[in-house]
Amino acid sequence: MRNIIAVATVTLLLIAAPLRCSADQTPAPQGATLAASASPSNDKDALPPSQQVPATITRLLSSSGPITGKDDQGHPAKGSVGLNEDLLVQVAPAPPYLDASKYALFFDGREVKGLDEPVYDRARQSLVFRLKRNDKNKDLWAALLGSPSSDTVTVAVSLGERSSDPKSPSRSSAGVDGSDKLKIDVLPPWRLAIALIVIASVVALLWGHARHNTTLRDNLLPQLAPERQPYSLARWQMAFWFTLIFSSFVLLFLLLWDYNTISPQALTLMGISGATALAAVGVDVIKDSPADAVNRGLRALGLNSYDDVLRVRQEIKDREAELEKKKKDLAALGPPPAPPAADPKRIPLEARITELQLEIQDRDNRMSTYDARVVPFVSQGWFRDLTTDLNGAAIHRLQVFCWTWVLGAVFLVGVYRDLAMPEFSATLLALMGISSAGYVGFKYPEANN
Amino acid sequence: MADIQHVVVLMLENRSFDCMLGRLYPEDPGYNGLTLNESNTYANTPIPVWNDAGMDPTTACIPKPDPGELFTDMNEQLFGGPRAATAPPMTGFAANYATQPASSDGPFVPRNVMHYFTPEQVPVISTLAKAFGVCDAWHASAPCQTWPNRFFAHTGTAQGHVDNHTFPIPFPAESLFHRLQKGGRSWRVYFHDMPQASLLGDLWLYALFHFRLFSQFLADAHTGALPNYSFIEPRYFTDLFLNNIPNDEHPPHNVLYGEQLIAAVYNAVRSSPCWKQTLLIITYDEHGGCYDHVPPPAAIPPDPNSQYGYAFDTYGVRVPAVIVSPYVPPGSKIRPLRNVDGNLYPFDHTSIIATVRKLFPTLGGKLTDRDEKAPDLLSALSLTFPANDGPPRVDADRAKAPVSELQTRANAPPNGVQAALSAAATILPKQPPAMTNDVPLPVPIPPNPHATVATAHANVTARISLFLGQ
Q: What is the ipTM score, two decimals?
């Protein structure tokens, strides 16, 4: 069971590692003013001549106020914006009218494509951009937010001319003013807390609770206590992928506010693990295995379930107690009379004592049969259960076990690095499928041994 | 005399000679088998012997349900009524069967006990009988149940007990095993679930070293480590845990599983380095209610004991006996030689004792008056050299018991031998007795408290494991 907890902990830590790194970072310097474009291009000629073209970005604001430069009281502004929040780019000179649709937003010199057209907020002399993540800009967001090492990342902001030709890139146009840059939230603490609570709850429910029930264990012998049932490789694999994919989904959703993050490959992995579990159950059902024989044998002894085992044990205790009492009662009658004389008070006591002894012996024998027969099917610990069968180490099990761990690690790294569930190649998926199919195929004769 | 150093005895359960081998040599008038004119009468209707063609599980389990096998049943079978002083007419098998108490195995159809198997239906025992020798005059030692007859095979007496449940345990008579032990000869009892021989009192001190599972017999034969005397007991109980069905051929158990056991024993012996010095005796303890046409003759009482007026002065019904050895000419019909007292005694189970005593003279004299007079099998070993190698191997039908059959048998009430073994197992010591101990005094076996074969089997295996320290 310690192995289970270890796996759950490692999984949780792996998932949480980037978040913790982000949150541990020292806040960026305050009083940032604005941004500097990395783009050398300042082609103002592209704007309509009737408009006054902004030359400088003076400040950046969020919907709650300035986040660079000075606030309204003249103090250095501080703050950050996150995905699905508005970023206000204050420009100068501020024209009374500005065709905002012609402007594009640039982070570190790369256009943030796929955003809604900005609007011009005359009161705050700002272009308002709604920061959204979608298919057109997910690579940029992955580059900005992926592999995070703090709770915010800093980027240089610039404006540029939005290209009307989808094939032609927009050009960065705003000038450089100041050395501070915009801070973008990676994962705010409250979101991180929610993510951790949700993930920890599921992990605890699935893996922690599994110690005492058959969620991750076979249930081939209902006469065994749940905590003595052996762990199931197929169920473990299914739970493994569920945990990884679920945790990744929760994190990505809270990070990106995007619920369409489950990749087809992740679905395939879940499908493979689910099909493996289903096929394994199918093999167990259709094949007359040694466990089936033991199950039949125990049922013939009146032991249909673990409750029956407990009941018989209790019956032994009850009869032993009664036997002791009857023996004392008999002893209290004194020594038996010499044959052929008989003490009528002793006869029923002696008869009951004999009866109790036979009943106890019968139940003892059933229990000793039970104890002897269930031994091969009792859990030997998480690792041995998953990698061995009744005949010892099993290569088909070890293969599935190893590949699942390797692909799981690759999966986690992918999520951390790219903020997306990795798109495994068809070859890798085929590898996992073959491995699982091999397991199911070998399970058939395994069940027959 | 033939150089025999290894005697192997396989004793199965409850089949008469006519049932198993009655039609082995149908054209040979000198062979005392069935002519097909034999019959019994029940309700004024003649019921001839018959064969159910084919060999499906239904046929292989005839007679089903289990015929009566108590002493009173056997008297009815032999005499058609109460025991009489005259030679039994063998006319009451069908009637006794028809009047048995109701069974969960179905109705008692009288003709079931008149059934016989053809050689094609039981090819293993038939092949061996033809390839070596068959005794058509081997009787059970008494018209009694399993225990009296098995104890006769081991000790030459039943000490006056005719039914299983009347025996005190441990059985106090001196056994052939004890003689072997004292005579410096090796011996082992090979068993499947519970060795009935473990109820012999003088074996309790040696139990730890001489009782082995049947798989050890195969290993011992393979390595040439067979003891001087091997006694093999079949599987009496259904073992649901290991999908094992009884192979003792006790009705209504499927005879094909017994055929598999016979084949396994023969193949092991035949391929053993010990083969050239081995005598294999395949026989059955008693007829179990199955019809046989030969009246049991008078017998020498083994001792003064008697029960219900029976002094063990007649034999039981004929049972199959196949004698296998490279010294036995193929196709032998083995008959006993006239005793030195001028009388002709048939073979019975004490012939095993007589044969072993002859082969190993250090074992000493008779165990009882019965085995003293019993004809031995040395005359059957008539080849000068061990020249008859017989078939290199015999193959039985590989039928495996389906789960439904296993469950049916496991949930059925125990038969006579199962109930008695289960009850007696409760008397076995709970740990291997020390050789320095005295054997406890015999006590009556308690009633069998187990309603099913499965619970009886659990009791037996638990107790025998403790007793043998395994």
A: 0.79
